[in-house]
Amino acid sequence: MSFQVLMSRQILSVLIIVMTIVIYIRSFSVGEEMIARNQLGLICTIVSLSSCASPLITLKHVMRTKSTETLPFPLILCIFIVCLLWYVYAVLIEDFYMQVTNLLGSLIGLAQLSLFYIYPSSSHRDKDYHSGNI
């Protein structure tokens, strides 16, 4: 199967999921607005945390090889900073769902950043070994 066919299927799947969520939320009557907001907040929290934790897919490989070569450092650093900034904003506007989501996202980002300290990439270790800085 070609790359374009796979991308088309993924885009179509995402559109179907988004439309299903929108129809579900819109199905609530006016009096049930708070229930709809809570449902939407929960859905957004799950999606946001899933995207923050996506680099952890390679965690098993990182632990086995004791190297963070497969982790995208710039992406993880940006996830941490952005979630931290959104958390501060959520505290200022007193939005519970944003606070929980971005606090957990910041903690996930911090945990991922700590892996770079615990398991430095093997390319750095190889450079140190060959330069005699061990």
Describe the structure.
The structure is a single chain. The protein is built from six helices and no strands. The protein has helices at residues 3-26, 33-53, 59-65, 73-93, 96-118, 122-131. Helix 2 (33-53) packs parallel to helix 5 and helix 4 runs antiparallel to helix 5. The mean pLDDT is 80.
What share of the residues does DSSP label as strand, in percent?
A: under 5%
Helix content: over 70%
What integer value in Å does the Rg equal? 20 Å
Helix and strand run: HHHHHH
Distance between the termini: 48 Å
**Biggest pleated sheet:** none
Give the overall pLDDT as a whole number: 80
Beta strand count: 0
Give the SSE layout.
Layout: H1 3-26, H2 33-53, H3 59-65, H4 73-93, H5 96-118, H6 122-131
Question: Which characteristics define this entry?
Answer:
single chain, 134 residues, mainly alpha
Characterize this entry briefly.
This protein is mainly alpha-helical and 134 residues long. The protein contains six helices and no strands.
